[in-house]
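--- STAGE predict ---
source: upstream dedup step, 1 unique chain passed
mode: sequence only
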Amino acid sequence: MEDRKITEQESLELISQMIQNTRRNLDAGSGNIFLLWGYIGTIATLVVYAGLCFTKDPHWMWGFWGIPVIGIPLGIYLEHKSEKRAKAYSDKVLTEIWRILGGLCMAVAIGATCMKQFEFILPLGTLIMSLGSIITGVIVRYKAFYLFSSIGLAIGLYMVFAAMGEDAPTYVSLLCFAVAAVFAMIIPGHMLNIAAKKENYVSNN
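--- STAGE serialize ---
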């Protein structure tokens, strides 16, 4: 039997449905993956910042390894939890993009540590994180999502240029990373939750 060709209108409706499903799949209520990494990154940064301010002990910088140690298991748990939902091609694309970017962040951290270029870890991590959020916003066609993430990207660029200076402002970089995480991950994550809940309410009524 010959397959029926879909019309342009049906094709647009199919793409729109796929994007809506991807938005819903990105949302996991209080376990939104953006909120998970955004809050873990921000809290870890502020803890490290407070430790450095009060003790002046550079060993507090090792506290950043708490981000992957805590975030990866929780991320795997949330991904396993979301496997019950039907996933479109765009879901798989986003998953692979974030896996690549996550691996790139780890490579930057390990490479910079081996080369003793610690001042570039946070700036490059901020750029990678913000770019990932921007790409996500573009794929799900959520303009406000990637506009906020662009602020994080701008902060990351500032941090890179500052790190190239002779006296890289470590404390300022810490605060910049925390602020960038808020704009690139936390705010978009909450916006995505709200949008997904509205779409779920409309589709169920």
